[in-house]
Amino acid sequence: MYTLPALNYAYEALEPHIDGLTMHIHHDKHHQTYLDKLNTALTNYPDLAALSAEDLLWHFADRVQLKTPIDIATAIKNHGGGFEHHNLFWEIMSPNGSREAVGDLSAAINARFNSFADFKIQLIDVATKHFGSGWAWLVLNEKKELAIYSLPNQDSPLLSKHYPIMGIDVWEHAYYLKYQNRRPEYLEAIWQVLDWQKIEERYQLGLKK
Ligand SMILES: [Fe+2]
Predict the structure, then answer these.
(1) pLDDT class of 121 with cuts at 50, 70, 90
(2) What confidence score (pLDDT) does residue 154 get?
(3) C-alpha distances in angstroms, 162 versus 54, 153, 177?
(4) pLDDT, tens digit, for every residue of 142-197?
(5) 3-state secondary structure (DSSP) of residue 17
(6) Domain spans of the chain?
(7) pLDDT tens across 63-97, in order?
(8) Exposed e or buried b per residue across 20-44, where buried means at least 16 C-beta atoms within 10 angstroms of its C-beta
């Protein structure tokens, strides 16, 4: 059984950028529901449940789809994605942290996108234009190159063996209470609480995956 990770900071710690009520509902209700539905889907598949959620999605094509009926595979894709994406999301934010890329990731971003400022413009543009629910991602692709794109719903880059370095949740549940339809304001607010030291740690993990 997977379990809900606690936040490493108080629910209100990201204010005024991300409000405490949104954090409570997002973590305690939405994330919890993805978790519950993932655990339900895996009830009769203990060998799959023994994998980390990351590996469950990474090996989706070669393990999950082969071993489970289509409706269970779909539940694992949707709720496994929802569970793992939110694990990542809480991890890459913090009330104090590096607000610009550091270390090897900083060099890789500058090499790929010209500068951190240009990278921000591209990522925010993708997140702003994403139609409907989904996530904007910075991933390491199969060539271990950085790439920006968005995916709908809880479709995971991991399904394509792309390692998500960071992602921004653009489901309305992530911002509607405070920002209503003003997604660009939410994206600017999220940018203020990203912790690039944590994102650098994910970059290093992705290089080794
Ligand atoms: Fe979410």
Answers:
(1) very high
(2) 98
(3) 11, 17, 32
(4) 999 999 999 999 999 999 999 999 999 999 999 999 999 999 999 999 999 999 99
(5) coil
(6) 20-91, 103-208
(7) 999 999 999 999 999 999 999 999 999 999 999 99
(8) eebbebbbeebbeebbebbeebbee
Q: How far is the CA of 145 from the centre of ligand 1 (A)?
A: 26
- Assigned CATH for 103-208: 3.55.40.20
If we measure between CA atoms, which residue out of 146, 144, 143 comes closest to residue 111?
146
- Report how far ligand 1's centroid is from the alpha carbon of 111 (Å): 31
Q: In angstroms, what is the span from residue 171 Cα to ligand 1's centroid?
A: 6
135 — alpha (psi -120 to 50), left (phi > 0) or beta? beta
pTM of the predicted protein model: 0.97
Cα of 85 vs centre of ligand 1, distance in Å, is: 8
List residues, by chain if needed, whose CB lies under 5 Å from ion ligand 1: 169, 171, 174
Distance 31 CA to ligand 1 centre (A): 7
Distance CA 126, CA 94 (A): 23
**Given this structure, which CATH class describes domain 20-91?**
mainly alpha
